[in-house]
Amino acid sequence: MSDAAIDPFPVEGTHHIEMWVSNAKQAAFYYQHAYGFVPVAYAGLETGVRDRASHVLQQGNIRLVLTSPLGVNDEIGQHIAKHGDGVRDLAILVPDARAAHAHAIAKGAVSFREPEVITDEHGAVSIAAIRTYGDTIHSLVERGNYAGAFLPGFRALELPADTDWAGAGLKDVDHCVGNTEDMNPWVKFYGDVMGFTELNQFTDEDINTEYSALMSKVVSSGDGKVKFPINEPAEGKRKSQIEEYLDYYGGAGVQHIALETDDIVKTVTNLRDRGVKFYDRPAAYYSEAVDRIGKIEEDWEDLKRLGILVDKDEEGYLLQIFTHNLQDRPTVFFEIIQRKGAKGFGDGNFKALFEAIEAEQALRGNL
Ligand code: FE2
User: What is the pTM of this model?
Assistant: First the structure.
């Protein structure tokens, strides 16, 4: 148990990620069949919820909630009209939701939901929420010994005996990246409100392709269980890809969610077989990477065939790959990551990645 005297905002991990989407029923089918998530819980008209339908999917420790409005002109509908499908809530698991919320407000955060205890026959959960960049919020979830499938008010789904819980082998949320107009106030926000520390920093000299550039800083909880890289656009010759995101998302929001696996070759093979599309890397990437990275446990031929990128730092290496956007707007996407000691985020791959993204941006006429 964390000591509040040492850490005034202890966090235990990511509780769930909620996306507000235009058709949650169809989105749930997509994340189930394309990404291997298992639908575990539901709330909607059949459970007494009148204004929205929420489908909860799980894979490993990752909980993905997909919510659509049932009425017109409500908060969710307006969010979707402005942002398209997008991440509404990066919900954080905390040992004490009331204390976390009080600390956050005292440090300048804006409350979205006052602390309350919600209950059903499976137990009680304390929950509160604060606002962060754009229209994104952080629910603060104190789950305690709650034994239900998700949260009180959600109905557990009856699952077939042969449910494939392994799915594509995705285990955990590794990090969630925000695109903002101006990152420094948000880096300060996470420092002040959550006591997160800045992990590392790269400048636009590091991540500067011919046309677009970005600046990025990473804030992390003390034990690294929750990590939020924050991006902002930097001056480039042409339109920055972060600007493209901000234009299409209608402001700041979540750019990508990195999902961790312990066997990226197996996971990416599985996802490709399911039809998931990933960014191709530039042809010269692997000859350069073999020299840059040196010896690894994986077969370079597998990585090349699957398009998996490799980066290293002082502590080890990591393998990563990025999916295409999850919706038509060029906004949110997934990263699949496997860490072999490295604590970074693939800075060495940013250039290779962004060149590939920009090839697609050019196809959309936005470069
Ligand atoms: Fe990432």
Answer: 0.93
In the three-class reduction of DSSP (H, G, I as helix; E, B as strand; rest coil), residue 272 is classed as helix
Domains in the chain: ranges and CATH: 3-156 (3.10.180.10), 170-364 (3.10.180.10)
Residue ranges of E strands in the chain: 13-20, 38-43, 52-59, 62-69, 86-93, 111-120, 123-131, 137-142, 155-156, 170-179, 197-202, 213-220, 227-234, 253-261, 309-313, 316-322, 333-340
Residue 105 Cα, ligand 1 centroid: separation in angstroms?
Answer: 29
Query: Average pLDDT for consecutive 10-residue bins of the chain (367 residues)?
Result: 68 97 98 98 96 97 97 90 98 97 97 97 97 98 96 95 95 98 96 92 56 81 94 80 94 98 98 94 78 91 94 92 96 98 84 70 84
- Give 363 Cα–ligand 1 centroid separation in angstroms: 23
Ligand 1 mean position, distance from CA 177 (Å)? 7
Q: Report how far ligand 1's centroid is from the alpha carbon of 334 (Å).
A: 8
Q: Where are the alpha helices (DSSP H) in 167-255?
A: 183-194, 241-249
Distance 257 CA to ligand 1 centre (A): 7
Measured in Å, residue 354 CA sits from the centre of ligand 1 at 12
Ligand 1 centroid to residue 58 C-alpha, Å? 21
- The rounded radius of gyration (Å) of the Cα atoms in the chain is 20
Q: Report the alpha-carbon distance of residue 48 to residue 282 in Å, rounded.
A: 51
